[in-house]
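User: Teach me something about this protein's shape.
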Amino acid sequence: MSRAKRLLLLLVVVSSFSILESKLVPTTLDGPFTPVTRRFDPSLRRGSDDVPMDDPRLAKRVPSIHPEQIALAASFSPSSMWISWITGDAQIGTDVTPLDPASIRSEVWYGEESGKYEFTQRGNSLVYSQLYPFKGLLNYTSAIIHHVKLDGLKPGKRYYYKCGDSVLKAMSEEHAFMTLPSSGPDLYPRRIAVVGDLGLTSNSTTTIDHLAMNDPSLILMVGDLTYANQYLTTGGQGASCFSCAFPDAPIRETYQPRWDGWGRFMEPLTSKIPMMVIEGNHEIEPQIEGMTFASYLARFAVPSNESGSNSNFYYSFNAGGVHFIMLGAYVDYNQTGAQYAWLSKDLEQVDRNVTPWIVAAWHPPWYNSYSSHYQEFECMRQEMEELLYSFGVDIVFSGHVHAYERMNRVFNYTLDPCGPVYITVGDGGNIERVDVEHADDPGKCPSQGDNKPEFGGLCHLNFTSGPAKGRFCWEQQPEWSAYRDSSFGHGILEVMNSTYALWTWHRNQDVYGENSKGDQIYIVRQPELCLAKGMVSSEVLHQSHGSLQVPLLWKCKFHLEVMLLCVWLLVKASGLWM
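Assistant: First, the predicted structure itself:
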C-alpha cells in the first residue's frame, strides 16, 4: 500500500472514530454539562381534557362482588409482595352508608405454575369516606378495599395468582407477576419506570401506553396520581385550574369516582408490575373535621411497617442492589420530627456492600428552574439535603413541575461531583397542562411571595454566590440545570452494575419514533471519591472499580465493530485495498 493510500486510510479511520464518538451516550463523568433548553413544540397542545367516566377503559367490567382495580406493590424485601383490589360498589350522594368490610373475605391463591395454586393467604379490608359539611356537596364512601401480603416468595421468580373470596365464588381471573431480585451488588431490576403527575387525560394514556411498551419490572409513581380534585363533587367536566373554574367552591372539592376510573385504567399494568407510590399535593383532598389524604391512605399498600416508618407517607424498600427511599413532603420533614429521625436511621442501616445504590423520591423538586413551583419546597431542602448528601444518595426523582428537567450533580446550589443527580419527571400528562416558562426567562421570575407550599413554611432565598449572587432568579439557565424540556413523557432507569445506571427519558411525541429518546445519560457512581464514611468495604470498592468499565467495554466493542466495518467498506469501495 502506498504512502498516500495509507494516509487516506488513516483519515478514514479518524473520521469514523469522530462520527462514532458523537453517538456515544454521555456519562455524568463527562459533566458538569453546559445547560441545554428544549422549548415547547408549538405544533403540540399544552394539555388535553380528562378521559370521560363513560370511556370503556374506566368502566367496571366485573360483577359487584368480584375483584377489580387489582394492583401490586413491593414489600421491603423481594420475598414479599402486596396485592390490593376492590370489591362492591362505591356510593355518592348526600346520604351514604359505608359497606361492611367483614362481608367479604380478602384471599389470594398463588403458586409457581399457571393454574396450580399451592398457597393461600388472607389479608384485611377497609372502606373510607370523603365527607363535606357544606350544603350541595355530595359525599362519597368507597367500595371495599382489600390488602393481602404474600410472604415466603422466591426472589426473581414468576408467580401466578387469583384474588377474591372463594366462599362466595368470586375469585378474579389468573394474573402473574415476577418478584424483584434479591438484594446484592450484582442483581438489579431489569427496568424501573419513573412517572409523575399522571392524571387521566389523553396525554396520560399515551404515557402509560409508551411506558408499557418499555416493559418495566417496577414502577415509581412520584405523586399526583388521579387529579380527582380538579372536579366538583358532582362530577361533570374537570378543570385545568380549579380555583379559576370554581371560584365559589367552599373547599377544594374532589370527585372520588375518578379514583375508581383511574384504578380500572391502570389495572392491566398494575396487576402484573409492582407500583410504588408517594403522595403529592393532589392527594391531600381535605374534608370534614380537617381530615386529609383519606383516599391515598386507604387505597395503596406500602411497606411502611416493614421499613420501620409506620407511616404510609414515607417508607423504604430494596430491589436488588438498589435501596429506595420514598419521602413525604406534605408531612413534618423538620429535623426534630419523626420522618427525619426515621430517615437518619434508615440511611445508617443501608449496607452499601449489599445495596450500592440509593435512590430517593418525593413529590416537589428541590432543584427547579421553571417558574412554576420555583423554590417552593426550599424549607424541606434546607432541613434534609445535608443528610442525604452525607450518606451518598445517588439519584433523586421528583414531580410537581409539569415538565422534564435533569440537573448536573449538585449540593446546596453548588456543582459537586458527589451530589445526587436530581431529575424532575412531573410530565406524566395531567389536566393542568405542561409548564413552559422558566424563572430565568425575561419577566418570568416569580416574586418571593409566590409559590407558597401547601405544607410547610416559606424559605425563599437569594443566591449568595456565583452568577446569580444577590438575586432570587438566574438571568440564564442555572449551571446546575443540565437539560430541560417542556414535553410529556416518562423515564426508564436501567441499573447495570454497582457503578453504572442508564437513564432514558422518553417523550410522548417520540413514542412511534425508531429508538428516539428525549434525554439519555449513564449515571456513574464514584464510591472511592464520595463515600468517605467507610460504608463500603475495600473488597467491594475494588469490585466496583473493576466493574466500572463494563458498560464502556460493551459500548466500545459495539462501536469498534461498526467502525471497522465502515472502514473496510469505505476503503474497498475506494479501490484502496491491496
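Now, about its shape. The chain has ten helices and 28 strands. Residues 10-22, 533-578 have pLDDT under 50 and may be disordered. If you'd like, I can walk through any region in more detail.
User: That's plenty for now, thanks!
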